[in-house]
Amino acid sequence: MQPFLGRRFLTARHAGLVNFTITTHGRIEIAVTNAGIGGEINAVADMSIEGGQKVTAINLNSAFYDIKYQLRAMLKNGGGSIVNVSSILGLVGLAGVAG
User: Fold this and answer.
1) For 17-61, what is each residue's pLDDT tens digit?
2) Cα(59)–Cα(86) distance, integer angstroms
3) What is the pTM of this model?
4) Beta-bridge partners for 84
5) How far is CA 1 from CA 50, 62, 70, 75, in A?
6) Angle between helices 7-25 and 62-76 (to 10 degrees)
7) Terminus-to-terminus CA distance in the chain, angstroms?
């Protein structure tokens, strides 16, 4: 497993991407968040803490960081649209993961 990237790196990366977009294109009017991984193929009780943290960081926190920085930029220009994309697992459970 690759080392997990911490929150400071992720927030700086998301802010940097928004700043790059504004520098390159002048503003952000529409954005799409699309982050998600499945994680370890284990029951939740058998999942490592690191694996659980990685899934949460990517599937939840990453979308939050995207929206946070995109929204700031959009509000400065009067608004915009953000589309959040999820897999089917964002809506339904996965059989067998409880153990």
Assistant:
1) 899 999 999 999 999 988 788 888 888 889 899 998 888 888 888
2) 9
3) 0.72
4) 33
5) 10, 19, 30, 39
6) 30
7) 23
Q: Which two tokens stand for residue 31?
A: 């954005």
Asked if 61 contacts 13 with a C-beta cutoff of 8 angstroms, the reply is no
Q: Which amino acid is at 64?
A: F
SS3 30: strand
Amino acid at 12: A
Q: Are 30 and 81 in contact (CB under 8 A)?
A: yes
Q: How far is CA 77 from CA 15, 28, 33, 39, in A?
A: 17, 8, 20, 37
Token pair belonging to 42:
């284990």
Alpha-carbon distance of 67 to 65, in angstroms, equals: 5
